[in-house]
Amino acid sequence: MSGKNKKKYIRAKSNAVKNTTAAKKAPAPPTKKQSVKTLPPSPLFDRNNFMELFARVFLLSMAFIFPLAMGPEKYGNITHYKNSVFYVLAALGLCSVIISMIIKVISTPEDKFSVALPKFNLPDVAVLLYWGFLFISAILSPYKDVAFNGQGVRNDGLIIQSFYVAVYFLISHLIKLRKFDLNIYCFGATIVAGLVMFHFFGIDLLNTGFSKPNWESGLLFMGPMGNINLTSYFVTAALVLAAGIYITGQQLKFDRNGALILSCFALMLWAELNLNTDAGIVALGVVLLVSMPLMIISLERLGRYLAVVSAALGVIAFNRIVVKTLILEEEFGKTGVLLIIASAITCVASVLICFGFEQQSVKALKVRLDKALSRRRLLTVTLSIDILAAAGLFIASFFAAKSQKSGVLYELGQMLYHGNFSDKFGHNRMFTWKRTVKLISKKPIFGSGPDTFCTVFNDTYGEESKKFFGGRNLDKAHNEYLQLIICSGITGLGAFLTFIGSLVTRAFRHATDNPLLVCCGAAVIAYAVHAFFGYSLPINTPLMWVLLGLTGAAVRAESKSVNY
Q1: Helix, strand, coil: what percent of the chain each, to 5?
Q2: How many helices and strands (H and E) does the chain possess?
Q3: Which 8-state DSSP code applies to residue 385?
Q4: By the 8 A CB rule, do 244 and 522 touch?
Q5: DSSP states of 35-50
Q6: In whole angstroms, how far apart are CA 120 and each of 114, 117, 164?
Q7: Distance between CA atoms of residues 251 and 263, nearest Å
Q8: What is the C-alpha separation between 192 and 206, in angstroms, rounded?
Q9: How far are the Cα atoms of 66, 193, 275, 318, 427 from residue 200, in angstroms, in the given order?
Q10: How far is CA 65 from CA 62, 70, 212, in A?
């Protein structure tokens, strides 16, 4: 065999060996049974799990339908109408899940049927205990009709609270949390914020009959949720959520740079400034100092955090120009100039951090700095900031108590340094709080029954209350925690605080692994602070339980977030 033919023979033999090996490795041609195409997994729900689909449809309806629902009487009967809409949406969601569960059980062959008991974590156990203590309180209550059915249209009785707990489990156990869910919650609140601002400028898109600008009418009702304090619950929690989504980079795919979610944050903040509720402002201040810094575990997040701060300062300066200076003709002043300068500085710092470290020459420095931002150091820095902020607050309130005659700092200074707890402090809330504390000892263990505060308070302080409030009776403590301890005792309050506390601590414990957790944890803190000055109604509370359900779903999720 010549050398040329020998090379051809060796090459042909080598190719034959390769083809034989490839044939062995190649899968057998699909049969007719195997040729069925497998659909890719849905980014929003398991195609084989219709219960998750119904739970997510319920979430969408609560984000977009419930907040905008207004009856023909508009503000005249808005509480009753929202109550009815919530019952309908919750009943449809729960019934859909139950029916799909029954169909799944019936259609499953006996040899493959198995019962998987739900796994409960600490928040689940705490919320079940909360409901159990409410039930005991209602059974033992001397006002059983009110305890079960609630006090008229401002309903907070056992039945509606049972729906709240059911909604929590519906969302937390059936939804595999995606960043889509958090973004949707924020988009719903952004629509509400936009309607609030239209109404603020006298553009009555909702046809409520109030078309004067807010600075002329002084109306305490704006937007589709009525009372500004109740609207503030939703807007405050959602804008904190939006800030967290932007900082941690959990915006949706079509919002690649986060411009949309940052714009949502800015609009909601603008609405919150003009809702002008002290509870909302205090909640934002607490979140800014306590939870937001815990999101900063890398230089990229630090840059995004500064972008949020820059946007917030810019919105405050813009509102000062448009509303305070141009409309109300107040002086723009040095404060306004400082706001603009601070917004510009933080914006430049954000751009430098986000894009400067993308250069190849400084990437190694970025890696070293990211490693330096350990969780322990981050907690130390956060606590140091909080201590300094608290010290500054106490010092400012000390001087305000001497030099001012009104304002939050003045009232805080009067209470801390002069022991002055005037009934008029906190927009007259101090009148209610002081007397509510005295009622705790009457039924300290299980309370007087859900939503019985009105009866209990006015039996003792009714005449005094009418004189102070100009003939009105109080039906809420204007502090959810005081309301709860009166109505369900230390057992109900303890279980509720355990529930909220366990959600927040678990959220921040795994914040470095799952960005969705820290977003939800910050929003829950905003709600918890707001609740100290607010009250529960069917207008705002269903949305807060949806938020708690989303946080519960995040806590139950795996350590790493699922990004779709």
Answers
A1: 70, 0, 30
A2: 21, 0
A3: H
A4: yes
A5: TSPPPPPPSSS-TT-H
A6: 19, 9, 18
A7: 12
A8: 11
A9: 21, 10, 9, 15, 22
A10: 6, 10, 26
CA 236 to chain centre: 8
pLDDT, position 43: 57
Amino acid at 259: A
Question: With contact defined as beta carbons under 8 Å apart, do 318 and 270 qualify?
Answer: yes
- Select from 127, 511, 124 the least CA-distant residue to 290: 511
Length of the chain, in residues? 564
Structure-derived torsion over alpha carbons of residues 400, 406, 409, 415, reported in degrees to the nearest 10: 90
pLDDT given at position 187? 97
Read off the amino acid at residue 400. A
Is residue 280 within 8 A of residue 236, CB to CB? The reply is yes
pTM for the model: 0.86
Residue 15's pLDDT is 57
The residue ranges of the chain whose pLDDT is under 50 are 17-18, 22-26, 30, 32-40, 559-564
Contacts of 493 (CB under 8 A, 6+ apart): 481, 484, 485
Tokens of 447: 């309370």
pLDDT digits (tens, 9 = 90+) for 223-242: 999 899 999 999 999 999 99
Q: Provide φ and ψ at 510, rounded to 5°.
A: -110, 25
DSSP 175: -
- Under DSSP, the state recorded for 205 is T
Tracing tokens 């039924």 back to the chain, one arrives at: 443
Do residues 167 and 546 lie in contact, with contact meaning Cβ atoms separated by under 8 Å?
yes
Query: What is the Cα–Cα distance from 413 to 106, expressed in whole angstroms?
Result: 66
d(CA 315, CA 317): 5
Phi, psi of 221, rounded to the nearest 5 degrees? -120, 120
**Hey, is 163 helix, strand or coil?**
helix
284, 287, 289, 291: CA torsion to nearest 10: -160
Do residues 224 and 234 lie in contact, with contact meaning Cβ atoms separated by under 8 Å? no
In degrees, rounded to 5, the angle at the alpha carbon of residue 379 between the alpha carbons of residues 373 and 383 is: 130
pLDDT for the residue numbered 553: 92
Residue 209: φ, ψ to 5°:
95, -5
CB 242 within 8 A of CB 304: no
* 8 Å CB contact between 544 and 225: no
Nearest to 70 by CA among 58, 57, 83: 83
Q: CA torsion sign, 475 to 477 to 480 to 486? A: negative
Q: Buried b / exposed e across 292-322, counting CB within 10 Å, b at 16+?
A: bbbbbbbbbbbbbbbbbbbbbbbbbbbbbee
Rounded-to-integer distance, Cα 451 and Cα 147, Å? 6
- Single-letter code of the amino acid located at 507: A
Per DSSP, the residues of 355-368 read HHTTSGGGHHHHHH
Handedness of CA 450, 123, 62, 59 (dihedral sign): negative
Query: Which parts of 329-424 are beta strand (E)?
Result: none
Phi, psi of 109 (to 5 degrees): -60, 150
pLDDT score, position 294: 67
